[in-house]
Fold this sequence. Notes:
The complex is a heterodimer of chains A (264) and B (81). With 264 residues, chain A is of the alpha/beta class. Chain A has helices at residues 33-44, 57-69, 84-98, 121-149, 160-164, 170-190, 208-211, 215-222, 233-244, and strands spanning 24-27, 48-53, 74-78, 103-106, 152-157, 195-202, 255-258.
Amino acid sequence: MVAGTTTIASAEPAVRFPSLKDRVIAVTGGTRGIGRAIVEELARQDARIAFTYLSQEGLAEELVRQVKGGGVEASAFKADVRDLKQAQRFIASTLEQFGRLDGLVNNAGIVRDKALMLMEPADWQEVLETNLTGVFNLCRAAIVTFMKQRAGRIVNMTSVVGLVGAARQINYAASKAGVVGLTKALAKEVGSYGITVNAVAPGYIKTDMTRGIDEKRRGELSKYIPLGRFGAPEEVARVVAMLLSEAGSYITGQVIVIDGGLAI
Amino acid sequence: MINTNNLEQDVRLLIADIIEMEPNQIDPNAHLVEDLGMDSMMALEVLAALERKYKIKIPEDELPRITTVSRAIELAKRYVQ
């Protein structure tokens, strides 16, 4: 453990979901932004965590050290969600290491914002492959395990943009709207196996993804948010934890919007 | 050591139970999907039931190969040994 680092799991969560203790949760894109907040929240809930990263090995190792420092089991796996084989290896390694799998959080996502007239096919493909095909790949890799055990929780990260659209984000909006459809269809398909599938749709959250928005613009945007501010990643992570816990036992096929009222 | 005859009978009973038919009415070579109305979800249930009963692990890739009762029996035999 890095000297002087505050341990995550030793902190008390804002809301405790006791049923998450010792549950094994796989999270994609766990090193930054909302994904990192989800890993930290699950650590505070004493869940056991396997998460993926794509390029930030140093950040991933540091996060594992922090989580483990609090006495919580955690592992980081380098995996590209765009590749089904890598998704399958991640799930298989998680099962091998932890002996079970109780939940999956499909968080990994990217943006390549541009006006349509300037958007290259590669901008479209990269976003669709990561944000939508990535969700398919991970669900495909984990679903048989969940079906066999007749239990499992899937939480997919979508976005308010997938519900209401946003200029210069047709690729991102299409991918996130796709996640909504996938979520609802899969919820219907596997509900009888005791598996819940839900999506979480954040609005403006303070992460690397929104860091590019300057202070003035941020102030302007906040005027359109009834709660008058950008959200914190922890406020999204808490809802994800709820959906993974017993508190979410009768919720499936839903899109939970966490946007301070932006999309009302 | 698991008795092979018992295993055959067990698999037949498992499948009969899942597709809700009398065990002796099932032709071992009948196609589970086309002839007996089984779907891919039911094939998974057969696989999961075999794993539970014999404490074995059958790879997911074998799922599409559970097409007849005979195939399911062959598969179970292979992994039990």
